[in-house]
Amino acid sequence: MSDTNFVLSIIIVSWNVKVLLKACLQSIYDTAPSGLSY
Tens of pLDDT along 5-16? Predict the structure, then answer.
Protein backbone atom coordinates (compact mmCIF):
# COMPACT_ATOMS: atom_id res chain seq x y z
CA MET A 1 0.00 0.00 0.00
CA SER A 2 2.83 2.39 0.83
CA ASP A 3 4.44 1.67 -2.53
CA THR A 4 1.22 2.60 -4.32
CA ASN A 5 0.97 5.86 -2.39
CA PHE A 6 4.61 6.62 -3.19
CA VAL A 7 4.05 6.10 -6.92
CA LEU A 8 0.86 8.17 -6.82
CA SER A 9 2.69 11.02 -5.06
CA ILE A 10 5.41 10.99 -7.74
CA ILE A 11 2.79 11.09 -10.50
CA ILE A 12 0.94 13.96 -8.81
CA VAL A 13 4.15 15.96 -8.30
CA SER A 14 5.27 15.45 -11.89
CA TRP A 15 1.80 16.44 -13.12
CA ASN A 16 1.87 19.61 -11.00
CA VAL A 17 5.33 20.51 -12.35
CA LYS A 18 4.08 20.00 -15.90
CA VAL A 19 1.09 22.28 -15.26
CA LEU A 20 3.34 24.93 -13.71
CA LEU A 21 5.72 24.83 -16.69
CA LYS A 22 2.79 25.17 -19.09
CA ALA A 23 1.48 28.15 -17.11
CA CYS A 24 4.93 29.80 -17.19
CA LEU A 25 5.21 29.32 -20.96
CA GLN A 26 1.69 30.68 -21.41
CA SER A 27 2.53 33.81 -19.38
CA ILE A 28 5.71 34.32 -21.43
CA TYR A 29 3.72 34.12 -24.66
CA ASP A 30 1.09 36.50 -23.25
CA THR A 31 3.69 39.11 -22.28
CA ALA A 32 5.50 38.80 -25.62
CA PRO A 33 4.82 41.46 -28.30
CA SER A 34 1.64 40.76 -30.27
CA GLY A 35 3.71 40.54 -33.47
CA LEU A 36 5.53 37.47 -32.13
CA SER A 37 2.45 35.84 -30.59
CA TYR A 38 0.59 35.48 -33.89
Answer: 999 999 999 999
d(CA 2, CA 20): 27
* DSSP H or E run through 6: helix 2-31
User: pTM value?
Assistant: 0.58
Q: What is the DSSP letter of 34?
A: H
| Separation CA 26–CA 33 (nearest Å) | 13
Cα–Cα distances (Å) from 36 to 1, 16, 21, 26, in that order, read 50, 28, 20, 13
